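Amino acid chain
________________
===
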Amino acid sequence: MSAPSYQGLEKSHPVNPIPSKQPIMLESKLAALKANIDTAQALHVRTKQELKDAERLYQEANSNSAEGRTRATTSWKHNLSLLAAHILIGLCFW
C-alpha cells in the first residue's frame, strides 16, 4: 500500500488563518493610553511633592511660634485639599 497523496488538497480546501483572540488596537487608542499613563505619572510625582510639603507644613504647625503655627496650619489644610483633589483626578484615569 502506498501512502495517500496530499498534493492539491490545499487548493480545494483553503486553510483560513486562526483569528486573533485580542482585538487590534488602533494607533489613536494607543496614543490615548500613553497620554493617560503620562498624565498619571505626572500626577503621581506632583502628589508626592505635595505630600512632602504638607508634612513639612504640619511640622511647622507644631512649632513654638504662634504666627508660624497659624500660617502653617492654613497652608497645610490647603495642600491637603489639593492632595485629595489630585488623588481623585488620578483615580479617574485608572
Observations:
- The longest helix spans residues 27-61.
- The radius of gyration is 30 Å.
